Amino acid sequence: MDKVKKRSVDRASQYMLKRAEEEHIPTAWDRLEAMQPQCGFGQLGLCCRNCNMGPCRIDPFTEEEQTGVCGASRDTIVARNFIRMIAAGAAAHSDHGRDITHALWLAAQGKADAYGIKDEEKLEALACEYEVKVDGRSKEEIAEELAEKIFADFGRQHGELRMPLRAPEKRIKLWRELGIMPRGVDREIVEAMHRTHIGVDTDYKNVLMHGFRTALSDGWGGSMIATELSDILFKTPRPIPARVNLGTLSPEEVNVVVHGHEPTLSDVVVDAVRDPEIVELAREKGAKGVNLVGMCCTANEILMRHGIPVAGNFLQQELAILTGAVDLMMVDVQCIMPALSSVASSFHTKLVTTSPKNKAPGVTHIEFREEEAYEIAKKIIKMAIENFPNRNGNEIRIPDENQELVAGFTAENIYNFLGGTYRATYRPLNDAIVQGRLRGLAGVVGCNNPKIKHNFGHIEMAKELIKNDVLVVVTGCSAIADAEAGLLTPEAAFKYAGKGLQEVCEAVGIPPILHVGSCVDNSRILIALTNVVNEGGLGEDISDLPVAGAAPEWMSEKAVSIGCYFVASGVFTVLGSPFPILGSKNVTSFLCDEVEDILGAKFAFEADPVKAAHLMIEHMDRKRKALKLKPLMYQ
Amino acid sequence: MKRVFVDLERCLGCHSCMIACAVEHSLSKELFKAIQETPLPKPRIEVRTTEKGDSFPLQCRHCEEPYCIDACIAGAIRKDPETGLVLSDEKKCVGCWMCVMVCPFGVIRPSLVPDKREKVAIRCDLCQDRETPACVEACPTGALFFGEAEEFKKAAGKEGGKKNALLNSG
């Protein structure tokens, strides 16, 4: 039991890990152990495989000026490797955004029946931003032209992206002066690959600044597009109660897990499981119904909009199958462990890939097409129902954990909450900070990583922050971690929050930690921060605000991009484990120190989540002092 | 005595053994901290390349009749009669580099002592504080083997005999 307690703080996960151990089914934790010790060059970013004169690796234990065959210094190599991570992360988010745009484009032309325009208000607002004529046109006409214009942002060759213009004026001016205002979404990613090709950009600072521009094309581009268009297509979330953890799997119903990231499939599945034909088929096969649950960010998408339960976060994907109760897991893209197929082979679980971008050897592939979304969703659910009788009753072990939560917060509905429906405004939020009822705001986001005890980093950091009157917003796997710990309930404010934050939560009836969505929805945080700046009284730029960001358990390249667009937007950001950059003192000191003079924010690395929370708190206090704000009400 | 043997077929030349060795002989014994120490810790194992281009790691062979002991003017090197290890006393070493010059394998290297900033000759000590030397544990392909010569021969034999070369001067 000690071993499983070291691996996760979540009891449901511990229960399943125990089973994995008993039945000798390896999980990510075992594979991490088998991988030890991991390559030192890789951890330090000192290995370059960008050309065939190499691979080259720089000795971290020599004082000599060692270089690669081409002459690239350790600084150049580390910086190049780092921005390739940003490029990959930005690519993942942005390609997701492109897929949503595609769905909107098809829906607008009546080519994809499963989709419609669910938020006309947002459609019109966005259309105005993109200079699409609204008056006298149908919502479909508007949506089609808007989709075309947004497509053009991906391949833009001249000028600037549209959405970064939403940032505070001072920030836009800074980006322009520094030459890092993002142009085309695809262009920045392509340029990152070009610059890091053999014999191109050698100046590590120049490489890194383009890395920031690439990240901005994600946060204020691809990701923001994904968020906004998902709201238009699938409706803008509103606060909604739901349940979380592996206990949401049902012993009596057909369990379908949707895992991955894009809502284009998962949102349609939500409708399909309620189809009378499906319900009847499930009963015929001896099930009480169909129980749809989500995993990772696609879970967050349908949780935010429909209150669909969440089975777990990144490190729980294998554990869900280990319950023996998953009849089918359908996956789309990103963070789908290739190991799923081998875990599934130990049980009756059917694994189905759906994206042309993600197939796996030996795994059933049912390709998803927007034009036939509903039929395809039904086909997959039928497959799950057909698989229900193959369950082995003796094999089913579902943990009890099934926690309540409230999700569905957005940059828009914070207006209504804090300002009241009649006078929607950020004023009360700003006032709470100005008066010292709230210390500041923090975004705690990112992945799970077996190198850090599962959920420990997220939960401990969030608790420490709210204890110190910091209002916390969360996304992605971090949000699911906090939800599993019961932190996403209004009651949590009384149990864990400082007095000032408690008062705010009590007055408006919100949890002390607000779930604002999936990992592309980190863009909601950028918008919320901009709204705080625009409301006035807290400086002129995001970098003036008493705010900070963190990714305590990060592992993916997307997290690298997110971290970089937060810093480039002026938000001090703490990571639970360092970026693979420590092999270069210059790159490390640039990102963790010097860049603050350029962008008004920097990175810090801190493994202890409570210490990391205090780095954030100290930062907020410095910003409060600079703004000459009142001392905190309750110190 | 137990020694480190090398399976030549398996070495990919990744230098992981060198990193692990330097970290093990650092003050902090953690990679991220070790690379920030002054002076930098140094590995006592080195990956070399044969004329054919094959790579192999090499460290002190702990010879039966070590030339380095005879060459040492400071009497800093001794052979432990029990373990058979050839050990340098870094406190006694005066940094004359005679041992470096006479070593037929070139596996003794001049260095600074991490905590003292003095010039001393350093060599593999088979990680006295550990059960298995750090390099052996770090090798991702299992090219390094720690044990008695007979054990290695047996292990090598199982995997096809001739393919595996025994690197042992002892």
TrEMBL record, chain B:
<keyword id="KW-0479">Metal-binding</keyword>
<keyword id="KW-0249">Electron transport</keyword>
<feature type="domain" description="4Fe-4S ferredoxin-type">
    <location>
        <begin position="84"/>
        <end position="113"/>
    </location>
</feature>
<keyword id="KW-0408">Iron</keyword>
<keyword id="KW-0411">Iron-sulfur</keyword>
<dbReference type="GO" id="GO:0051539">
    <property type="term" value="F:4 iron, 4 sulfur cluster binding"/>
</dbReference>
<feature type="domain" description="4Fe-4S ferredoxin-type">
    <location>
        <begin position="2"/>
        <end position="32"/>
    </location>
</feature>
<dbReference type="InterPro" id="IPR050954">
    <property type="entry name" value="ET_IronSulfur_Cluster-Binding"/>
</dbReference>
<dbReference type="Pfam" id="PF13247">
    <property type="entry name" value="Fer4_11"/>
</dbReference>
<keyword id="KW-0677">Repeat</keyword>
<keyword id="KW-0813">Transport</keyword>
<dbReference type="GO" id="GO:0046872">
    <property type="term" value="F:metal ion binding"/>
</dbReference>
<dbReference type="InterPro" id="IPR017900">
    <property type="entry name" value="4Fe4S_Fe_S_CS"/>
</dbReference>
<keyword id="KW-0004">4Fe-4S</keyword>
<dbReference type="InterPro" id="IPR017896">
    <property type="entry name" value="4Fe4S_Fe-S-bd"/>
</dbReference>
<protein>
    <submittedName>
        <fullName>4Fe-4S ferredoxin</fullName>
    </submittedName>
</protein>
<dbReference type="Pfam" id="PF12800">
    <property type="entry name" value="Fer4_4"/>
</dbReference>
